[in-house]
Specification:
The chain has 325 residues and is of the alpha+beta class. 36% of the residues lie in helices and 10% in strands. The chain contains 10 helices and 8 strands.
């Protein structure tokens, strides 16, 4: 793979670069951290000047990436399809990183006509240094990247664009903010990133530590969802939006490709029903493709899948009635 160094695409051993001496996986920090706000005021990080407006912003995602999936979900749930445009990179990477296929309307860069996502980063900052990740939120007016951190992009989509949205639901309500933050901290560390810490571990001890935490968290979710509709009770919130992309990928990807195989998600009746309920919410299934999820995680990898063989199973049906009311 590779990364950008002073605006130049440079070869890099991605796995070694992301693991410490004990073999633990450490996620890289995002490069662009400005915020879209209702009036263009600066957000918690970065610079100001990015006011919410229909047609001004463009989102790049990869269908198989769970971090990008969060932003596609929030865009869909807030009904921002006509406000923020969207392009997909191919659901795989090559030695150029994330790439487009400009001969295929489904994977074209309709905004800048680039062949690889790292070229979008260079268009934003010719001297940029950092890893090239999805999602990316592009500003047409200033011709730059606003942000490439999924957590921050979903917060912007939730609040900054309400004047242009057909859904005024607040998925991060003030009265639940502390509870949402507690769930987010748990699910990020031990589930969203926990499956990656398992799959990319470079030592037995690092793998054992990570995979045990993944299933301890699933056990907690199972107990909680036995008595609660959603993570924060009866209200569907950002905490659920952040948990869902990992859960819907679990059996088709993480169970096998990342060795998270103590149990299947389907072995957790309450968690699996909860996952199916979210999948069946209006618009959510449009953001999912189980076959792409599987092929993405079983794509050729020297460390995990050198032959690139994609398993036929498991067969799961997220449209099966969830029975949760």
């Amino acid at each position: 793979m590779g990364m950008l160094v002073d605006g130049r695409w440079t070869a890099e051993d991605e796995v070694k670069a992301k693991t410490d001496k004990s073999g633990r996986f450490n996620r890289a920090q995002s490069v662009f951290r400005s915020w879209v706000s209702t009036d263009g005021a600066a957000g918690p990080s970065g610079e100001g000047g990015f006011a919410a407006a229909p047609g001004r912003y463009h989102l790049y995602i990869a269908m198989n990436c769970p971090w990008a999936h969060r932003t596609a979900l929030m865009r869909k749930l807030k009904k921002l399809d006509d406000v923020i445009t969207l392009d997909h990179v191919l659901p795989r990477r090559d030695d150029r990183g994330w790439i487009f296929d400009n001969s295929d309307d489904g994977y074209r860069d309709t905004e800048l006509g680039k062949d690889a996502l790292h070229e979008v980063y260079i268009a934003a900052d010719p001297g940029v240094t950092g890893r090239v990740t999805v999602p990316v939120l592009w500003d047409r007016e200033r011709e730059t990247i606003v942000n490439n951190e999924s957590v921050e992009i979903i917060r912007m989509f939730n609040g900054a664009f309400d004047a242009f949205s057909n859904n005024d639901t607040d998925f991060y309500p003030e009265d639940l903010a502390d509870e949402i933050d507690r769930w987010n901290e748990l699910t990020y560390n031990t589930l969203n990133n926990g499956v990656y810490r398992s799959g990319f571990a470079q030592s037995q001890a690092a793998y054992d530590e990570a995979v045990v935490q993944v299933f301890e968290t699933l056990d907690k979710l199972e107990a909680h969802l036995a008595d609660n509709r959603y993570l924060c009770g009866e209200r569907f919130t950002e905490a659920d939006i952040r948990a869902f992309p990992t859960l819907i990928r679990f059996d088709v990807a993480y169970f096998g490709a990342f060795k998270c195989n103590l149990r299947r998600l389907m072995d957790y009746p309450h968690v699996w029903a909860y996952t199916r309920e979210i999948y069946q919410m209006p618009g959510v299934a449009e953001t999912c493709d189980l076959d792409i999820f599987k092929r993405g995680y079983y794509s050729p990898s020297p460390q995990r899948n050198p032959l690139g063989i994609v398993p036929l199973g498991p067969i799961i049906d997220p449209m099966e009635p969830h029975g949760r009311g």
